[in-house]
Request: fold
Amino acid sequence: MKICSTCTHTFDTVDDWRCPTCGHLPPCIQGFPAFAPELALSGGGFRPEHFPELVELEMGNFWFQARNQLIIWALRRYFPDLRRFLEIGCGTGFVLSGVAAAFQATRLTGSEIFSAGLSHAAERLPQVELLQMDARAIPYVEHFDVVGAFDVLEHIAEDERVLREIHKALHLGGGLILTVPQHPWLWSYQDEHACHVRRYTATELRKKISAAGFTTLYDTSFVSLLLPMMWLSRRRYSVQSDYDPLSELRIGRLTNLTLGMFITLERRLIQLGLRFPAGGSLLLVARKS
Reply:
């Protein structure tokens, strides 16, 4: 069901956002329905000028590829009958493109606070529903089988509010899948320039998930074998004010292949049942209670 942002009436139409009760229709910004139009061009939590370069970097970077593979593995394992999926903060659509290839019969929706990101996502996924939205006010109720947010929560101060909104948007028994940066002791200029609000501990995230009405099904650290290198990299930039947050993604082909071998090994160990206790990132899967 959809929720009218003006009169809060719920309705269920496939392709139309016009409220049958009050007639309200969300405005379009850059061709996308906008549910938080005041934030579409200048919302917080990210720098939209990075989107064009990010499109190019995602395609070949080992980290983005490995994260996609891990997300798809978790979706197949815990939600094999996925029919409706929402990604919050879909950015340029890189994760959604992976989900679309793996779940071809699934109806996909992508949301992003910045309309600029949606333009890139639409080029990758012309058949996917895309909308501009503030994750603190999701315009759906009991609509999706699974909601995903991949390296999004750390950008939002009101993360617990977002988790409650996700809970509302899911069917009873629906699923939540998250990735977040882990370990506050890894905090550095990279986090500040990436507009992060926090890095999580596993315990903190589990508590917030539980408080929002979810039961954790699975969690594991990843980017674990590369954690020492990651720590050294963070210390290198700990006092550099002109740090470029995309610099870590601009790596040579040989370096990319080498690091990719490590993270591929790590992913395969996770798929075999190993759960890493520490790592730069955390994957968590939960179910609506």
Q: What stands out?
A: The first helix runs from residue 51 to 60. The radius of gyration is 19 Å.
